[in-house]
Design goal:
The structure is a homotetramer of 371-residue chains. Chain A has 371 residues and is an alpha/beta fold. Chain A has helices at residues 19-27, 50-53, 66-69, 79-88, 102-114, 146-154, 170-181, 221-232, 278-287, 291-294, 316-319, 322-325, 351-367, and strands at residues 9-14, 34-41, 74-75, 93-96, 119-121, 161-163, 186-195, 235-237, 240-242, 248-255, 262-270, 305-308, 328-335, 341-347. Chain A is globular and about 60 Å long. The two termini of chain A are 22 Å apart. Chain C binds chain D through residues 188-190, 192, 194, 209, 211-217, 219, 226, 248-250, 252, 254, 256-259, 263, 265, 267, 311-318, 331-332, 336-339, 342, 344, and chain D through 188-190, 192, 194, 209, 211-217, 219, 226, 248-250, 252, 254, 256-259, 263, 265, 267, 311-318, 331-332, 336-339, 342, 344.
């Protein structure tokens, strides 16, 4: 940490010892705004120093910051005690990387929010709660406007819940949004994903399924990939979200032997007007910027969509780390025989699609004054 | 060879030392009708015994028959000499597994045919020659009717050329054909393939591209996948083929770290009437039979389409070898949000999709009296 | 089953639904002597038909025999009831593929033996029980002589326990034994293994550890690899085994991204006299035969040690299936700068090293009159 | 480049478009002392801008610096013209990453040296030239003392040749050297390597050999692994090197499906006195420093040997990038049943073992005043 740590906002991690939790810890090592000072996890880790709780279970190449090593891990389920510790540490909000059942996660996140703690979550539990925004910072930053309504309705003062969508849709939401902004909304999409094993956590996918093999199924993933975009493209109606009706999406989700990086092959039909050429589309993507770029958030990729002209890109190992692993890399834009266009899009699932996306959401919420 | 070899039809292999040639040699080890007695390859192998020509280059687990070991390999390009050797050996026809340029292959296959030798080819060179049938034995056996016209037009007496289609389309042509036969032709298809590295031969795809990676591109493969079905579903018009107009296909072809077995994710829109239920479709597939099954050809899978009810099948390593690696294995039939149905289909690319498919075509041509 | 099943000896499998149990079921499909008629497993599977107990969990390409599908699975822990069912089925002995704790396995195998049921085990529990033989059928068939002593000492009439050693040592025990028989015992060995993931069962090794990675550690494996050979090369002393003192072994065991097939790199120092040449050693290996070959047991490889002259063999994917996956394949015999010789040896870990080795042991015990 | 580029020493790369050349370009992006201003490669690339010469062939995740993109690539074989361009660019020395035959490389490197250009080479061509030092900067920095003798003998004024050893030995040379310095030289070593595919360049190892497989052979690698350490541990005798006699090494080299990172399993016998405990050895390794650390070279790892206490480390994917991929990571130090100790060591083969090691050698030579 090159900067004086006292300038930074102290934050906590729920589920700090799991794979997404480790990503948060690692990515926040040198964050200019935030600093991890609180960690909660399962009873197995509770009462241990963070370094001891993850000994032999740390999955990442990059390690944790020295000051994180000695954080005493709380039991995430022992809410009152954990919230006490959180507040004693002067923390401001938590990133939730909980890996419990949906009902447990929902309840726990609500308890933290009710205690005045903003919860920025990676978990899927609250994605379909109708007053909880599902944020991609470049795509729907205005969905944060629901937060005052959410707080009021639930009687929460400072706490609230905001979530990020599933990692499988990250690669194609931004290019589609860029086209929407340029006046070319999509009518129908057929999307085929080839998803990395890190998406399933650790131990996750057995190696017996991933050597000389692929698995054409990921439980629940197709439904999420088809429905979540409609909420993200939706609007606030009263104090809840109303889904968009388009695009209609059909998703085929597959697991492939790749460590990090979800690849999507997309065939797209425009709803109305069509771009005049492939070059126009590439220009739209190259020019695409959102609030994270305009306000220069620390985790914002300079160029959210990178187009590569080579025949055989993007490829997960070669392109996933583009711009701090926060950019989407696209290639192979060409005419579709059946719809209008087709292309291949890639996004780093455990950075942009998980902890990095969560941090960017926190930067957005900080910028908007909610933290 | 349990059987007296003198009962069998002696056959030759062009390109006998390459990867597809090896597959032919290996699969014909115990064939009840055919026996390899002639092998031609590149000048490098010419003049050597087969066992010496493949020493250190044999790629398969299963080895070649003892009598093949001592076949003296001819230079495939030294056509007159090779044809002499072929005829001295009393051979009846050749399987072509040539790996030359398209023009060289075309010319060479025509020279053999002109010399009175039927050529059953795996090469793509003649797939778009308008009087050459592209055969999948269950799907379009009636396309062999072009052969007398081809011979007459070209002034060939006994020789002719028949080819098989690209390996990438094998997995979905039979299920689609089954639906056509049941009165449910397809209007549009979006197909996404995840193809095995053996499809690129040896050395083929570098390991640096296939460890922790996939490559979303295979040169020329999408065009073949989109056009070849139209010839196969087409009809004889005068003495040439006329393509079908449907289905319109958009293909996304990817290379994945799998040894053998191409997997396809298919979204399908029916042209007219639709099946009443998923159960009806499964029944259509289960009941699907073609001439190979009716006439009980040696290489015919008993059941050409095997449907698996598990959520996560077919998988290449577990399903590619179904019924001698000649069956198509399908799973995950479900409604498509955008079209009518979607499903996953798998076929062994170097057996059903290459040498095994060629042998089945030879069995068809023998049955029809052309060999 | 081509043969009338009533001619065959009915046998049972303990742990029938696990990965090794599945291998037993699959390998015994067409066994000329034995036929599976009894299956016991964990309470989760108990009371189900075998086909239902393994639905969605069957790991192998080859499936189970039709008559096995309907076997009602017993609870292996409900010993009295299981033994009743076993005896009602007229079964003769059990293969044990139990995957419980060591103490549970030990106790359970003893209960079956005490009930008069011979137990031929894959489990490691009884490998260091001093009156239990650890058998490699070619290497120490005479160790079956302990069985009468074991029965007498323990007061068992028909039942007894015989086990097979760890899969990691299969590849080098036979070549070393061949040298011992030829008068060239080994003094010291440094062995380095690269072991397949199937050795860890399912789910076993996480894919996150086996993509772009190897793991230089397998818990307990080095100790087993160093000690078990000494019992196998040992002798019966009174009514217990006395270990051999040589060879002294140092093992480095690694997990690599291979489905099946353990590879070992061996440096060997002879204890006394040395072979005159590499050619002499190759001849010793080529000529090596044991009782399984002499008596022509169904699962015996015709040639237990196959030597390949290529520079770069053996390789797991290409060589593991040699001779029904029961042969050891060796290559790269050359001088060692430090000891006398070095070579690479390969054995199929779930066939020769597990169920196939167990079946060969049963054939040995049947031949010797113990079943 | 944060720094004014005019402060830096301009350098050239021979073989700049190959895989090692790309590594040099990439690693030198932000080097505080050196800046790439000259690139030579094969005729195919000559006359093109660097960015065009590597278009579609760039293998690395990290890209090249903007100013490198426009360097005009020279034909490395057109020596006079290339040397002219080199000198016009005011360059000081070249890194040689040539991928030609041994004889061509030898001749070409000598031509550059004769023209007054120091050549710091990755190629193996001159490793056994008796007046050329083979440098590992921490281990034998004093071997640079041969350079004045080399120049004088050959009549070169400013030019000279210095090389680095094979990537396979990097992981164990430093731990062994640390023990030598502490008074515990090794007598005998049996080393088993599991080497990454990047060591074979691109296209390099076919994926058909690296999916569900390992290859127990790398041409020439075992000989290099056994002999090069003796030169490195040797001494200057007159104006040539005299090899050390110890340690005697026996190497087993294997190719495994890993992108980067060579792992070695080592069994070691001490020549004389032995360390009193494993703890003493770990302390020796932890305390090990060389000239690169003492003089704080930019590419020097802070701690050249990192010991990990976990049972199952080092692992290539998790440990290869330790300290800029320049540190050796060791684990599993334990007693050897046959020799004295055994351990596992890991080094990044294309950074520490190739371009990174070359850059560290250049830093050493700069520090010593030879550049």
């Amino acid at each position: 940490m090159s900067q004086n740590s006292s300038d930074k906002i102290p934050v906590g991690i729920l589920g700090a010892t799991g794979m997404v939790g480790q990503q948060y810890i690692s990515l926040l090592n040198d964050h200019p705004w935030f600093e991890v000072r609180f960690a909660a996890a399962s009873p197995r880790s509770a009462g241990k120093k963070y370094k001891d709780a993850v000994a032999g279970r740390w999955q990442l190449t990059k390690t944790y910051a020295p000051h994180v090593a000695d954080i005493m891990v709380e039991d995430a389920n022992d809410v009152n005690r954990a919230i006490d510790a959180f507040k004693k540490g002067g923390c401001s909000f938590v990133f939730s990387a909980l890996e419990m059942s949906k009902d447990e996660t929902k309840a726990l996140e609500e308890q933290y929010a009710a205690a005045g703690i903003p919860v920025i979550s990676n978990a899927s539990a609250h994605r379909w709660t109708d007053d909880v925004p599902v944020l991609i910072a470049e795509v729907n930053p205005e969905h944060t406007d629901i937060i005052p309504l959410q707080k009021k309705e639930r009687g929460w003062d400072r706490g609230f819940i905001a979530v990020k969508p599933n990692c499988s849709i990250q690669s194609y939401m931004k290019p589609i949004h860029a086209l929407v902004k340029a006046g070319y909304p999509a009518q129908r999409l057929i999307v085929h994903t080839m998803q990395a094993v890190s998406g399933a956590g650790y131990p996750g996918v057995p190696s017996l399924d991933m050597i000389d093999n692929i698995v054409p199924y990921i439980g629940g993933e197709e439904e999420k990939s088809e429905k979540e975009p409609l909420k993200i493209f939706g609007s606030i109606n009263g104090n809840v979200f109303k889904n968009a009706e388009l695009p209609i999406i059909s998703a085929h989700c597959n697991r492939v032997p790749v460590i990090d990086g979800h690849t999507a092959c997309v065939s797209l039909e425009f709803a109305g007007k069509k771009p005049s050429s492939m070059e126009e589309i590439k220009k739209i993507w190259a020019d695409y910027k959102g609030l994270p770029q305009e306000a220069d958030f620390p985790f914002a990729p300079k160029q959210p969509i990178i187009y590569r002209e080579e025949d055989n890109r993007p490829q997960p190992r070669k392109d996933r780390d583009a711009d701090k692993a926060m950019a989407v890399v696209i290639g192979r834009l060409r005419q579709c025989n059946v719809f209008d266009i087709r292309f291949v899009a890639l996004s780093h699932n455990t950075v942009r699609g998980a902890a990095g996306g969560g941090i960017l959401n926190a930067e957005l919420l900080k910028h908007k004054g909610y933290l």
